[in-house]
Amino acid sequence: MKGWAAVSDFDGTITLRDVGDHLLLHYGFADRKTIEESYSLKVKVEDFMKKAFAGAALSEEVIADFVRKKVRTRPGFREFILFCEAGGVPFEIASGGVDLYADPFFRKHGVEVKSFFGKAKVVKGGIRITYPFLRRTNLSAFKASRVARFQRAGRKVVFFGDGPNDLKAACLADKVYAAGRLLKLCRERNIPAEPLVSYARAAAFIRKNA
Length: 210
Ligand SMILES: [Mg+2]
Known about the structure:
Layout: E1 4-8, H1 19-26, H2 32-37, H3 45-54, H4 60-70, H5 77-87, E2 91-98, H6 99-109, E3 114-123, E4 126-130, H7 139-152, E5 156-161, H8 167-172, E6 175-178, H9 180-188, E7 194-195, H10 199-208
Parallel strand pairs: 1-2, 1-5, 2-3, 5-6, 6-7
Antiparallel strand pairs: 3-4
The chain binds magnesium ion.
């Protein structure tokens, strides 16, 4: 055993609300019903994101400003990053979100984390999103593959998530902290998961089970 690794979702997990949804709703580019439907297990988050943002006429500045003023962070996140760095615990983020809002978020917190986000480009009338890391797979399978990769390397994995597309990764992980829809899905399927309240709990858990 080489110890622990940590893999986390971003939207609604590291942030308290899904930043993509929040942006779309706030600026009127999507309604609640459309957002709600995107959380069906049958919908691919990456397809929803591409479609939803295609008509979202937002500039980089507007998005960065939104992140600075409106996006709230899960307690203990920054401390957890520092804890992982100090303790040699590899930490990475696998997300269906995009660099346009993730970059200003990490700048705000003054941390750098290994991460996989969609690439967003402001084009005429909207935002074009691509997922270079999803060549032959989908987001849900990709997240699970990052967990499996650490396990093959001999580590146990803590996984953090909140959405239906986090379910596959949660099934594989050795310890799960779940919020929102993921917590509900885990309970329905008897997948052991602790409610994700603060990242501090995970740090304490890793310390205790090192
Ligand atoms: Mg999420």
